[in-house]
Amino acid sequence: xxxxxxxxxxxxxxQGLLTGxxxxxxxxxxxxxxxxxxxxxxxxxxxxxxxxFITLLLFKTxxxxxxxxxxxxxxLGFGLGYFIQRFxxxxxxxxxSEGSMLATLGLGLIISNSLLLGFGAQPQSINVPYAINTFxxxxxxxxxxxxIAGLGTVLAISALNLVLYRTxxxxxxxxxxxxxxxxxxxxxxxxxxxxxxxxxxxxFAAIAxxxxxxxxxxxxxxxxxxxTKAFIVTVLGGLGNLPGAIAGGLVLGVIESLGAFxxxxxYRDAYGLIAFLLVLLLRPEGLFGKTVKxx
Amino acid sequence: xxxxxPQPARIGYVPGERVLEADTLDVAYGQxxxxxxxxxxxxxxxxxxxxxxxxxxxSTILRVLSGMLKARGGTATYRGQSLNAVPPHRITDMGVAHxxxxxxxxxxxxxxxxxxxxAYLPRTKKNRAENLQKVYDFxxxxxxxxxxxxxALSGGEQQMVAIGRALMSEPEVLLMDEPSLGLAPLVxxxxxxxxxxxxxxxLTVLLxxxxxxxxxxxxxxxxxxELGSLVKEGPxxxxxxxxxxxxxxxxx
Lengths: 295, 252
Prior knowledge:
heterodimer, A: 295 residues, mainly alpha, ABC transporter involved in vitamin B12 uptake, BtuC, globular, B: 252 residues, alpha/beta, Rossmann fold, six-stranded mixed beta sheet, four-stranded antiparallel beta sheet, disordered N terminus
């Protein structure tokens, strides 16, 4: 292999890993919610869209830097998720039920149609001068916004890990995931823990939306594509398995990136789906099976 | 096999000081009523048994007392406070700990983490380290296993963790739901011995069991349920000599 080919390979790999980091962030939120509540959040992509549109709105009206809108989108996402779990989903009874699945589907429709009503259907983007800059290291070029996205992902996931494994709240979350009844009997207000977890999951989706905004166009149904990717990520890693979701995200990003570069860019989204089908066929418990600890 | 002697009158036993009381409880799952007007009480320092066959409603009563189920009629009280509309986590905070059927441990957490979860409530955090040591002193075997995942323990050890975890919440009353379920006979004797020795910690215990013989040996008083109604109650020593009990539960 000559020098150019090697550089191109690493270029593709790094791009894939950084994009995969974002998928991991989205997938982690979905997986966390499933791990604790056994609810599949079909509105996950729409919460991501909310993050994007908050960034768009703040930029267009107040000229606020897209990354600064994290300070709005992250807590707003948390509050929205907390509220939805506490006052909508918790009323539908526990366990994996059609009720909660339909409720999140319905919420997704409400969100995407509200966005359509408020912002119109045309794709919109924001332009910040530094976003088109690139960062070069050992011949590999990466756009600054993608690098920031990668960094934001690492920060968010590390923070989650710290909370889950180093705090009382985290222990209560893990306890609730492993045995809700057992946790409640230890004095844990599990309804509150579930609301917090849904809040964190939605917040992660919104953060991913903010980080994606400088890179992509947004439109009201932008979330559809990402909810599919989030499912691929969580199935790759095993539903409810957080380290699995992170690895699954990175794997998906790299598969897409390599496929797009070496095969054809037109089928970018198809490579992940092919990987998804293969995993379902060959290792339905996820790539990492039961060897990796759950939440 | 070791035999368990009937326990002498208890040290912390205060007759007449009602701690836990159920008054004419009616409980139903949907349309099906399973508990019919059951009244019982547990006094301070007592070790009381609640026995009966499968489907007699004994676990159901325990679930009402710990807030996991709502009664259709009647009242459950702890020191005069109604438990009827109180969620389980609040009841634990009031001082009534529940060692649930099937133990309900946090399987992927270590033994120590499981025990620490028992001291989740703010009021119990202050003495957490001290209580942890007490639990290890009480169950020396758990000390060796403190770093093992709870799911990797034997049934008997898991039951010790479940009891230890409940003790970490500094309860006044312990509700125990079929602690012998799924355990080997020798282990059952050991668990029963442990339950009998809980009195040394000054605890008040309501023990639900199918294993009538073992319960009558360790408890002060026992209630016998059949198809959701109380059919007998009295000092366990007397019930052990009761011809009907012998015929129905102890075999000949």
